[in-house]
């Protein structure tokens, strides 16, 4: 089973550190054998022991620097996504505050003209705008969300806003406890959401909904998007090189399939229902 990127990087550093220590020990041993008949043992120990200590300190320092660098980078990435969502939230609230009087006057106009159909349409558009703000607020204030998952969701919400796609987000559980395979989980989640946004963008409705729940020792990420049904089988979508879009590598879903095949605690169920494309990504604890 694959480990997270940080774990892999740490193991590589640890392996290099151990290798350096072994090489240093061999060099010291060889020098000890060569010099033991020439100079006293105490002199050899006094000379070579500092070399061993210094190499050990250098190796330890390097490992801590690598770990510190990875942590700082992760925190900076988190801060970047947090700033993006805060900026979008701030802009939406400012616009709503600025337009509040206009909104009231518009509602008043529909009521005075008894145009209930027009009022329903206006309310629907206003409600969609409020949902976008609520989604951003949810990501900003939900501190029980895994940092990597937070970054993915914040980025896709921002992307959906730029594409004028309605993205509804519902986080019903604490995802901060998801730790194993987080690199693979984030990769799969990113690919699934990118595909959902691209699929929804081809439709008139342009809707993507994401629901995160927990049931029977597993987390469930349900991603539903509107799409144009081109009568392509689900199995075909996961083939390497296949894509419904021009100038696309077709690697995304195939890569998801490869990751799933190597991780027994991850599963994905895909189905099409009329104009809805549904993906259930399950993570077993």
Question: Helices, strands, pairings?
Answer:
Layout: H1 5-35, H2 41-112, H3 116-141, H4 147-162, E1 166-171, H5 182-201, E2 207-214, E3 218-226, H6 234-237, H7 252-261, E4 266-273, E5 276-284
Parallel strand pairs: 1-2
Antiparallel strand pairs: 2-3, 3-5, 4-5
Helix pairs in contact: 1-2, 2-3, 2-4, 3-4, 4-5, 5-7
Describe the overall structure.
By secondary structure, this protein is an alpha+beta fold. It contains seven helices and five strands; from the N terminus they run ααααβαββααββ. Strands 1-2-3-5-4 form a five-stranded mixed beta sheet. Strand 4 and strand 5 form a beta hairpin. Helix 1 (5-35) runs antiparallel to helix 2. The longest helix has 72 residues, at 41-112.
The count of DSSP E runs of length 2 or more, i.e. the number of strands, is 5
Quick one: biggest sheet?
A: 5 strands, mixed
Number of helices: 7
The ordered H/E elements are HHHHEHEEHHEE
What would you call the structural class?
alpha+beta
Taken from the alpha-carbon principal axes, the silhouette is elongated
Helix fraction by DSSP (H/I, runs of at least 4): 55-70%
Indicate the mean pLDDT.
76
Which consecutive residue ranges, at least 5 long each, have pLDDT under 50?
1-5
Q: Order of strands side by side in the largest beta sheet?
A: 1-2-3-5-4
Cα gyration radius (Å): 28 Å
Give the CA-CA distance, first to last residue.
14 Å
Beta-strand share of residues: 5-15%
């Amino acid at each position: 089973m694959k480990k997270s990127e940080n774990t892999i990087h740490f193991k590589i550093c640890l392996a290099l550190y151990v290798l350096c220590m072994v090489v240093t020990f061999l060099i010291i041993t060889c020098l000890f054998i060569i010099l033991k008949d020439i100079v006293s043992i105490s002199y050899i120990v006094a000379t070579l022991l500092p070399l061993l200590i210094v190499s050990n300190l250098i190796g330890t320092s390097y490992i801590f620097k690598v770990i510190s660098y990875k942590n700082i980078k992760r925190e900076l990435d988190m801060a970047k996504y947090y700033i993006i969502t805060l900026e979008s939230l701030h802009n939406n609230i400012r616009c709503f505050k600025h337009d509040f009087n206009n909104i009231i006057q518009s509602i008043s106009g529909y009521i005075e003209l008894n145009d209930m159909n027009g009022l329903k349409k206006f309310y629907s558009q206003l409600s969609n705008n409020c949902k976008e703000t609520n989604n951003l607020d949810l990501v900003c204030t939900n501190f029980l969300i895994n940092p990597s998952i937070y970054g993915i969701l914040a980025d896709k919400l921002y992307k959906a806003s730029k594409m004028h796609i309605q993205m509804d987000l519902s986080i019903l559980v604490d995802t901060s406890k998801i730790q194993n395979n987080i690199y693979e989980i984030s990769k799969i989640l990113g690919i699934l959401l990118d595909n959902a946004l691209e699929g929804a963008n081809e439709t008139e409705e342009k809707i993507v909904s994401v629901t995160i729940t927990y049931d029977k020792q597993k987390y469930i990420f349900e991603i539903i998007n509107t799409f144009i049904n081109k009568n392509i089988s689900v199995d075909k979508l996961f083939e390497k090189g296949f894509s419904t879009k021009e100038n696309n590598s077709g690697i995304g879903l195939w890569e998801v399939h490869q990751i799933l095949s190597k991780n027994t605690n991850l599963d994905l169920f895909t189905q099409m229902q009329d104009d809805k494309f549904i993906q259930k990504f399950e993570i077993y604890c």
